Amino acid sequence: MSYMKRFRNWFRLAGRRLPRFPNSDQRLACTVNLDTQAYNYEANWRRTTLITDHKIEASSDAADYFQSSVETIQRADIRFGTYISGGQVLATARYYPAEAITIEQTAWSQSSIIHGVCVNRDGSVVHGSYVNLDEPVARLPFGRLLVEEISSRPGDYVFLDNIAHNSAAGPHWFAWLNSCDLMRRVREGCPRCRKLLIVNIAVDPGALNIVELEQLAMSVDGVAFEMPFVRARRERFGNQYDLIENYRYLLDAGKLIVLIPVDAALETEAQRDAERRFIAAFAMMIRKPGDRLFVAWPFWKPAPDWATWPQDFGAAFSPATVNPEQQFIERRFRNGRLQLDLTGVVLWVKVSE
After folding, report:
1. Domains of the chain with bracketed CATH
2. Could you give the CA distance from residue 277 to residue 275 in angstroms, rounded to a whole number?
3. What is the per-residue pLDDT for 14?
């Protein structure tokens, strides 16, 4: 599609009101992967302002169950979206709404679908079938199928999963430019169904160069990062600067960012909670008033103490300061200060100094 044609399309759609992302000035915690158990834990997630994706297990009454759940979310005035894969295709959907396009819908050549095992560079193994985004004959119709599926769904956003950057994935992932092309095509179709696009990307955000960062910003409305602050950046002092600059680039461009702490080395729930708290403190070091910066928290757990840190600490007096000798980051706020040890071992919090 030519530049002028894209411009005319966006101009024609500009009069249609799109939803807005909430900011995190009051609440830092958000909900990711709200599933079939939503009703059992409603008291825990009802206070959130953002649910990135909601789906339930497929069954004969899944549509009715999902509609009832959506009505509960809407009555609570929570912004929410639904989930779909931006790469994987399935023989049969296991959730409602469908978590992926089915293979039956993709009448392409076998070379356009990669089957089997994908071994990532970190040694992890992913089983499944993926659309070969490096082939235009597959990428373009795949984008159209995604938009068609998205257009029939409720919600303010769509959560597009299974996008990876070359630096984070193994041989069966695709050129970054082609991944961005798919994201951009889906995003261009979203205004027609009055939705925004959040993309979950497997990448260390600090590894993106400025060109890749600009390509990403032009392709999405929001980004979820499951590698929000990798340990290599904590352990080598000075590696944090590129990460912070890249986050600020996206936030200053008005993008939503959701930090989702995922680390296979964390074996217990207590360790995972400590990591979430660490990432929340890091988010407080970089956020500004009005930022759409959130940290994921499981919907089935009561809210953590850091859920309302932006409200509790108030406005920051200045940007965070870095202590190179003791390797910690510190920031002072109207109502207290935070000190974050970059090893992740210590998190010192003091409110109302």
Report:
1. 17-312 (3.20.20.70)
2. 5
3. 42
Q: How far apart are CA 256 and CA 51, in angstroms?
A: 12
Highest mean pLDDT among 163-167, 236-240, 294-298: 294-298
The Cα–Cα gap between 34 and 80 comes to 10
Q: Write out the H or E segment, with its range, that includes residue 284.
A: helix 269-286
Q: What is the DSSP string of 211-277?
A: HHHHHHHTT-SEEEESSTT-HHHHHSTTTHHHHHHHHHHHHHTT-EEEE----TT--SHHHHHHHHH
- CA-closest candidate to residue 29, choices 50, 53, 52: 50
DSSP 109-157: -GGGEEEEEEE-TTS-EEEEEEE-TT-HHHHHHHHHHHHHHHHT--SSE
> If pLDDT is split at 50, 70 and 90, which confidence band does 9 have?
very low
pLDDT at 172 > cutoff 80 = no
Q: Is 3 exposed, middle or buried (0-12, 13-18, 19+ CB in 10 A)?
A: exposed
- Dihedrals φ, ψ of 204, to 5°? -75, 110
Distances from the Cα of 227 to the Cαs of 140, 170, 296, in angstroms? 28, 16, 12
- How does DSSP assign 174-208, residue by residue? --HHHHHHHHHHHHHHGGGGT-EEEEEEES-GGG-
Decide: 243 and 208 in contact? Cβ < 8 Å. Answer: no
Residue 136 main-chain phi, psi, to 5 deg: -55, -35
Q: Is the pLDDT score of 285 beyond 80?
A: yes
Check the CA dihedral 184-12-292-317 and report its sign: positive
Kindly give, in sequence order, each residue whose CB lies less than 8 Å from that of residue 115, ignoring residues fewer than 6 positions away.
129
Which tens digit of pLDDT belongs to each residue from 37-85?
A: 988 999 999 889 999 999 999 988 999 999 999 999 999 999 999 999 9
Q: Residue 329 pLDDT > 50, yes or no?
A: yes
- State the average pLDDT over residues 161-174: 72
Q: How far apart are CA 276 and CA 210, in angstroms?
A: 28
- DSSP label at residue 34: B
Neighbours of 137 (CB within 10 A): 12
The tens digit of pLDDT for each residue in 93-145 reads 899 999 999 888 887 766 788 776 555 444 555 567 888 899 998 999 999 99
